[in-house]
Amino acid sequence: MALPKANRLKSRKDFQAVFREGIRRHGSYLTLRALKPLCSTKPSLDTATQTRQATDSADIASTRIGISISTKVSKRAVVRNRIKRQITAALHKLLPKLSPGWRLVVIVKPTAAESKCVSPQFLQELEQLLAQAEVFDGNS
């Protein structure tokens, strides 16, 4: 079950922005990088920024999520894709609880493949990391 298109982080530019400016939270299997919505970071009186924020209002409406899994996790694409599907399923369950406008990148650690981690463990760890980053609705 894939994430809806509106909730996918796709462009290289978006990934780089999250890696450069986002906050980090670490778990035993996953690392979460989270970038707050543009409108809540700092309000500006600059007209160029206001027009940019107005054009980005469609992006702010939904939280966008990307998953990064390296060949260091496993050399086999089958294993990497299985882990990616499990994380996507866990994120799909958590999607209604997330605050709008966040950009998130979930990075899989090599321990996830070594320990034969399963979906409930991913779901539990994602909930913990998202709570630490205050991404859940009502926390931000």
How would you describe this protein?
The chain is α+β, with helices and mostly antiparallel strands. Helix content is 45%, strand content 15%. The chain is built from seven helices and four strands, in the order αββαααβαβαα. The protein has helices at residues 12-21, 38-41, 47-55, 57-60, 77-94, 111-114, 119-132; strands at residues 23-26, 30-35, 64-68, 103-108. It has a four-stranded mixed beta sheet with strand order 1-2-4-3, sandwiched between helices. Strand 3, helix 5 and strand 4 (103-108) form a beta-alpha-beta unit.
Which terms summarize this structure?
single chain; 140 residues; alpha+beta; 7 helices; 15% strand
Helix and strand arrangement:
Elements: H1 12-21, E1 23-26, E2 30-35, H2 38-41, H3 47-55, H4 57-60, E3 64-68, H5 77-94, E4 103-108, H6 111-114, H7 119-132
Parallel strand pairs: 3-4
Antiparallel strand pairs: 1-2, 2-4
Helix pairs in contact: 5-7
